[in-house]
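Collaborator request, handled under Task 6.
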Amino acid sequence: MANRTGDLVEPVQEAHKLDVKALYNYASAHVPGFPLSPSNITLSQFGHGQSNPTYLMEVETGGAVKRYVLRKKPPGKLLQSAHAVDREFQVLKALGDNTKVPVPKVFCLCNDPTVIGTAFYIMEYLEGRIFVDPKLPGVAPERRRAIYRATATVLATLHSANVDAIGLGNYGRRDNYCKRQIERWFKQYLASTSDGKLERNPKMFELVDWLRKNIPPEDSSGATAGLVHGDFRIDNVVFHPTEPYTVQIGLETEQLGKGLELIGIPEGIPSQAEFLAEYCFEAGRAWPVSEWKFYTALSMFRGASIYTGIYNRWLMGNASGVSRGRRQYVTENKAQGLPKGSGRFVPSKKIQELRNRLIKFMEDHIYPMENEFNKRAQSDLRWTIHPEEEKLKELAKKEGLWNLWIPLDSAARAKELIFNVSENAYFDAAHDRLLGAGLSNLEYGYLCEIMGRSLWAPQIFNCGAPDTGNMEVLLRYGTKEQLHEWLIPLLEGKIRSGFAMTEPQVASSDATNIECSIKRQGDSYIINGTKWWTSGAMDPRCRILILMGKTDFNAPKHRQQSMILVDVQTPGVCIKRPLTVFGYDDAPHGHAEISFQNVCVPAKNILLGEGRGFEIAQGRLGPGRLHHCMRLIGAAERGMQLMAQRALQRKTFGKLIAQHGSFLSDIAKCRVELEQTRLLVLEAADQLDRLGNKKARGTIAMAKVAAPNMALKVLDMAMQVHGAAGISSDTVLAHLWATARTLRIADGPDEVHLGTIAKLELQRAKL
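Structure tokens returned to the collaborator:
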């Protein structure tokens, strides 16, 4: 997965703190358009990178936030010629003003160290994605190739810049670039290992001797000189929030020299030869086959010298990325946000903090209101909304616990299509809250579980089904017009939605059986059919349905179905009755039977196009099924908690239930099954993040089978311990059990998922 640029910031390190007031005074005088009377200025530090300290400066004015990036020299004693921010600024400005090389716009350079302690410059902030792991986990193969192709193209564009034409003709010497590089980095290596700082490696001396003897003859002429990036890697490139092209390359100090350096290529995507072929085509130059060994060795030597310097600066306490200096950057764990030394599925500090806030919100506001919500749901006002629910939703928004389910890539697409801020420094804070916290499916799993402990909680945080699945469909497949009309009100929690797929006359577990027709008629579609178990349709706030039906009964089996948006107030839409689950009607949410009689909707309401229904369904159901599983873990935990409390309070036959051997055995087995299932669900979420829906489908199917069955066992045991109270409405257990039992059927029955698991197992056996 990719990291959003804004996710790579952390609190400013003690050694890198600076005078914010002095910075503001300088910026307001030298940065065009800088807010003159901000209500707040926040400074945080980018933890990704090891060279010049880089900061995110957020300036808030009247609810709008403008973001800038500040880059400065590190404090303390530095190696000579290193960290030349003035040269970085000079190159960025020349490239930005005169070429198509994607670099950020720079605003000002300050060489006066009395302002904030060292020289610095300020540039624009660009929202985008950074791929920390060059293997690009969680990215489809074709997108990986496109991303690497874009990387090769931007490097070729940089190397093709005419230094004389853009005013950098006198930037540096053009001859003996390789020779100077060898001596420079060997000198830096010696300086980093002098005076007993670090032990010197004899292999470095052997390597430098080999390099000196094998410098290519062309190096002395300077005929092929051009700009050379100082640290070109895929994680130093910022990509568009949703598309595989670059919006910015991060620059270290540029030099004049040979136009090709080693780029770390992950195995297989693409091969070194393929990548270089792409680069050479874009740059219009031949691959230096005979000198390639030399350039590879030079880059490795340079990298070793740089990392030695980083470690040395860390020992002195002035390394930019302290966390990276302290350990190797474990990209897979970073993507999951895991702290050093933790297990694979231990939540990061960010998630732990969100989880603690969520638990406190549940304890302070939701658990105390459960009885009130239940009373209303059993009264004559059952199909109306409790006033307290809307108040709690507003409180959840304010506390940053709103729309936590939204994946990072979906949020990026929404920002671009709805708010037009993909390349804009302004972004309203209220809009930012609508798009969640930029979590992965795995990270959301830790939070979704907490919500699952109460039947009422998910909707309070706008994380309830079927709304999350429907919003995900709109986020991924909706047009700009559809997003504005329906997604924004759903994100705001002003309306709710339903998903109309299941039909009473056919076995809907096989979606090819669906009979509801969607026929094109001019600029409209006419819908006829009956749906049932349309969850959410009874809610008075329900305004939009996503309906699955057939647009072409003669097309190939899986191209007959389409999905379309239907306003519930359209003539011909008739909500016939609410359905009950073991006697529960789940008011005011409800599950409805709906008839559609000559319902006419605009043709623009079709999602993605005719015949794309199955494609959308698979994209929707993967995350949706996992959300159900995550909530079931929470429901089981609630059952365990109530079971243990009851067993420690009630006596039978002269001793506490908790003292009976049979109970001890049963509760232990429940805990074993719960933890097994939790790990399976987290593994499925992790695979969904890394591999995508298709490759993760087997593990998702396992989780979908395991979670309801585990929850049923735990809740059944909890009801048994409670006796008659357990099957009454005096506890939440019976209702949780009914919901869990439903999920052995909803979103695909166990038998369908077991079939998927079995087919994949047999395919592996054939291999």
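The cover message to the collaborator said: "Residues 465 and 767 are 39 Å apart (CA to CA). DSSP finds 23 helices and 21 strands in the chain. Please let us know whether this matches your experimental observations."
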